[in-house]
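Structural prep section.
Before we set up the soaks we want a predicted structure of the protein with adenosine-5'-triphosphate in place, mainly to decide which crystallisation condition to try first. Input record follows.
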Amino acid sequence: MGVAVFGGSFDPLHIGHLHVAESARGISWVDTVYFVPAGRPPHKRLSGSADSRTRLAIIHACIAERPYLDVLDWELSHTEPSYTFPTIERIRRETPDQEPVGLIVGTDLLQDFASWHNWEALLSMVTLLLTRHPTGDDPRSFLTEDYLKSVPAALRAGIQSAVVIDHVPLPVSSTVIRSRIQQGLNVRDLVPPAAWQIIQHRRLYGL
Ligand code: ATP
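Run finished without errors. Recording the tokens verbatim:
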């Protein structure tokens, strides 16, 4: 068996994230999926959003009844930018050698994967588990011959060891949720019930 790592801002966690995490368990060797909320994502500004502790509390509340989902808060305690590489390095060290480590990556991020910190070393340690982000391409296209010819050789090697997570593409993102709340629009069923409770209770995202 092995683990899957799901990094992101989770600002907030939404039904698309939860559905992807549940669906990753459809891969035969995945027994636990770890959410890894980013402290300060290098590619993203977090202003106008929920603080780290609140984002973490939402994840904890949403996965409480699901023992096969867990959360690692390692990146939240760092003051430097969050990078996936040291997190995966630590998980790899703590996971028995024969067990694979999967890295869940949405197709919005995969396009820029070769700009990630230490991406080649990162690829050598994981199996990519591809998901379809509403703003990205169909992950199946990343496994086609034509696509593979257009990417750098090392990325190609990693992508060849990738698996597509079989999930229903849900057209929801945290950006959509934050922006709808700011506009006074309904988001109730776009986040898990436990997340909605916290958003209401703490009046997050301008509610
Ligand atoms: P934002 O809109 O703030 O950029 P997001 O909804 O894309 O946020 P992140 O926390 O940045 O969520 O993403 C974490 C991971 O989840 C990324 O790999 C992203 O591609 C993936 N992801 C996010 N939303 C979906 C979705 N609806 N379906 C599949 N994957 C998703």
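Observations: The chain has nine helices and six strands.
Flagged for discussion at group meeting.
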